[in-house]
Specification:
Elements (H helix, E strand, L loop, with lengths): L3 E7 L3 H15 L4 E4 L4 H7 L5 H9 L2 E6 L14 H12 L3 E7 L12 H4 L3 E7 L11 E4 L5 E4 L6 H16 L4 E6 L5 H17 L4 E6 H10 L6 E4 L1 H14 L7 E5 L6 E5 L16 H13 L4 H16 L13 H11 L1
Parallel strand pairs: 1-2, 1-3, 3-12, 5-10, 8-9, 8-10
Antiparallel strand pairs: 4-5, 4-11, 6-7, 11-12
Helix pairs in contact: 1-10, 1-12, 6-7, 8-9, 10-11, 11-12
This protein binds 3-isopropylmalic acid and magnesium ion (MG).
Magnesium ion binds next to helix 9.
């Protein structure tokens, strides 16, 4: 049976960048079939919900899901359950992709695109492993309410169970073994109970299963600081959902442009992974052919590697993106003037 990828282009620049990823797929693995469906605002406009049951079923039945981006000004005032971002959260939860891998590496051709000094980021190669289906994003109770004195308040619950922490920490240890062998676990155990618990469980798991891995711990604020001071000290950073969200945007920007970075979200073995650029829907430049398709192309690269067992094709894609950059191909975010399509052309030419 042939392998299949479900494409969920989504909103804003999502469709433009996914189109280029599909062109690349057709060059490196034309036997893999694709199917498309709607998510986010695009799904709200057509089906009235950000993720339909049909789309979730299609996602579960595929080998990998490649998503563009969700969200935009058109839907910001909608009730929470009718906002595009909920489609993404429901998809993550529905596929149970609890381990979000967000690499931050610096392509040699882009060392001068970063706002940090060359020596700080040259050779940077770190991986953030972010827990993706629990924590404060999903914890109950939550809400906006009014207390007995008539004072309104908003709140949510930061909750992690032992199995939730263990399964994502296990992934971080495994990834570290295939890289530099170091995991830095991040929380706020100085102020949060869920953070204290996180540290306890990660430490115990490391003692039991952490052979070959050096474990360290940092508070999330200190980690944010160290990421701009000396990012090359990190190999794998392990974080919960919220801190992982924040730190991965910061790490992405170290490399010059958030338009370069892909992500993979993995569940248990044998279930489809979800692949998406770290960047958002960028409504300000949507539809103008200005978006950098590299993060989407590299998300395809991760799908080929992690879900489709096609490391050979993945290596070709990674190399081609590097070569296109070496040859001077740059979209606007990288200080150049290529259109989305032309950047896709440059990667395909390198292939
Ligand atoms: C991300 C995004 C999402 C998140 C939003 C769009 C819900 O910021 O993937 O990092 O917060 O997880
Ligand atoms: Mg984010």
């Amino acid at each position: 049976m042939s392998q299949s990828i479900l494409l969920l282009p989504g909103d804003g620049i999502g469709p433009e960048v996914i189109e280029q990823a599909v062109r690349v797929l057709n060059v490196v693995a034309d036997d893999i079939t694709t199917q498309s469906s709607l998510v986010g605002g695009a799904s709200i406009d057509t089906h009235g919900v950000p993720l339909s049951d049909d789309t979730l079923e299609l996602a579960k039945a595929s080998d990998a899901v490649l998503l563009g981006a969700v969200g935009g000004p058109k839907w910001v005032d909608a009730a929470r359950h009718l906002r595009p971002e909920m489609g993404l959260l429901q998809l993550r939860k529905g596929l149970d992709v609890f381990a979000n891998l967000r690499p931050a590496y610096c392509f040699p051709a882009l060392v001068d695109a970063s706002s940090l000094k060359r020596e700080v980021i040259e050779g940077l190669d770190l991986m953030i492993v972010r827990e993706l289906t629990s924590g404060v994003y999903f914890g109950e109770p939550r809400g906006i309410e009014t207390n007995a004195d008539g004072v309104r308040f908003g709140y949510e619950t930061s909750r992690y169970t032992q199995p939730e922490i263990e399964r994502v920490a296990r992934v971080a240890f495994e990834i570290a073994r295939g890289r530099g062998g170091e995991v830095c676990s991040v929380e706020k155990s100085n102020v949060m109970e869920s953070g204290l618990f996180w540290r306890e469980i990660v430490t115990a798991l490391h003692a039991a299963e952490g052979d070959g891995v050096k474990l360290s711990h940092l508070y999330a604020d200190a980690c944010a600081m160290e990421l701009v001071r000396a990012p090359k000290q990190f190999d794998v950073i392990l974080a919960g959902n919220l801190f992982g969200d924040v730190l991965s945007d910061e790490a992405a920007m170290l490399t010059g442009s958030i338009g370069m970075l892909p992500s993979a979200s993995l569940g248990i073995d044998g279930t489809p992974g979800l692949y998406e650029p770290v960047h958002g829907s960028a409504p300000d430049i949507a539809g103008q052919g200005l978006a950098n398709p590299c993060a989407a192309i590299l998300s395809l690269e991760m799908a080929l590697r992690w879900s489709l067992g096609r490391a050979d094709a993945a290596d070709r894609v990674l190399k081609a993106v590097g070569e296109a950059l070496n040859a001077g191909a740059r979209t606007r975010d990288l200080g150049g003037s290529l259109s989305t399509q032309e950047m896709g052309d440059a990667v395909i030419a390198a292939l």
